[in-house]
């Protein structure tokens, strides 16, 4: 474990997702403790995307942006909203130069799959239709997110490919949750890792899926064919149950002919990039932004 990160482990509250309402409060408190980002160079606007039901979004516009990313927050499909994601959406917009459309998608267990996917896909379609209004090239729209949000981004990319939907330039998958089966080595063996462990992952999928069987749009690792998907940047954390499914997905994308960058961050755990005082976390955020900038600017 990176020593700068290890020092913070005792400060993390226990989060097992047995009580989603209570865990949302703790998650919001953690997000509120993150140092405020510099938003002086951004125009920030709350909007509503027409859908059934309508989807709240927060749009972060840097000056002279060329492209945009439909950004999906983490939180295990159970926690998180526009406010908890604000520190990260603002930082990514400011450092990447991309318009960030942060999505306030519906969460489980009140709204199970496919509610979050439907919300995310509606925002992708809206972004493509309103690219001129957003000041970006409609051919330079990416999808991305962290953890559950990265899993949603991968599912959006699959759905857009299968349904001949809006073109997606790039997918930015940070520590993605992709596989409900929990059969990889890391998913089976990381039972005591910080913030995310096997039992918590089990609870996440139970809340998200209920009793319904998983499809590739719920758990993208189940997709048999990954060809024709957008280029991807995939990151994994060393001490994270999602680690091996993220690496496996990146390898399968490569084998399907999809350009991929894969970064396995040594000494990190799931979500540890939120500890901004750590040097490795600063590098993680900077590299996410740089990868998005390259994908949308080239």
TrEMBL record:
Transmembrane segments: none
Database matches in Gene3D superfamilies: alpha/beta hydrolase
UniProt-recorded Gene Ontology molecular function terms: hydrolase activity
Assigned keywords, A-Z: Hydrolase
Pfam families: Abhydrolase_3 (PF07859)
Residue span(s) of domain Alpha/beta hydrolase fold-3: 69-272
Signal peptide extent: none
UniProt keyword RNA-binding, yes or no: no
The name this protein goes by in its record: Esterase
């Amino acid at each position: 474990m990176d020593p700068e990160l290890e020092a913070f482990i005792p400060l993390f509250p226990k989060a097992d997702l047995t009580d989603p309402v209570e865990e949302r409060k703790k998650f919001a408190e953690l997000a509120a403790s993150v140092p405020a980002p510099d938003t002086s160079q951004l125009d920030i606007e709350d909007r509503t995307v027409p859908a059934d039901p309508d989807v709240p979004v927060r749009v972060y516009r840097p000056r002279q942006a060329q492209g945009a990313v439909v950004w999906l927050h983490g939180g295990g499909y159970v926690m998180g909203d526009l406010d908890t994601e604000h520190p990260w959406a603002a930082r990514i917009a400011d450092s990447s130069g991309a318009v960030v459309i942060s999505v306030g998608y519906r969460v489980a267990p009140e709204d199970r799959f496919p509610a979050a996917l439907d919300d995310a896909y509606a925002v992708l379609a809206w972004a493509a239709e309103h690219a001129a209004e957003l000041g970006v090239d409609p051919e330079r729209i990416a999808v991305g997110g962290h953890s559950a949000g990265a899993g949603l981004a991968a599912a959006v990319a699959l759905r857009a490919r299968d349904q001949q939907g809006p073109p997606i330039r790039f997918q930015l998958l940070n520590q993605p949750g992709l596989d409900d089966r929990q059969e990889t080595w890391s998913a089976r063996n990381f039972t005591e890792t910080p913030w995310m462990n096997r039992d918590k992952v089990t609870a996440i999928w139970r809340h998200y899926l209920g009793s319904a069987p998983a499809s590739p749009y719920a758990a993208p690792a189940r997709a048999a064919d990954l060809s024709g998907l957008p280029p991807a940047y995939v990151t994994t954390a060393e001490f994270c149950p999602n680690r091996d499914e993220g690496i496996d997905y990146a390898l399968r994308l490569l084998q399907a002919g999809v350009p991929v960058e894969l970064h396995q961050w040594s000494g990190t755990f799931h979500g540890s990039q939120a500890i901004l005082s750590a040097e490795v976390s600063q590098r993680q955020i900077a590299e996410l932004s740089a990868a998005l900038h390259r994908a949308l600017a080239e």
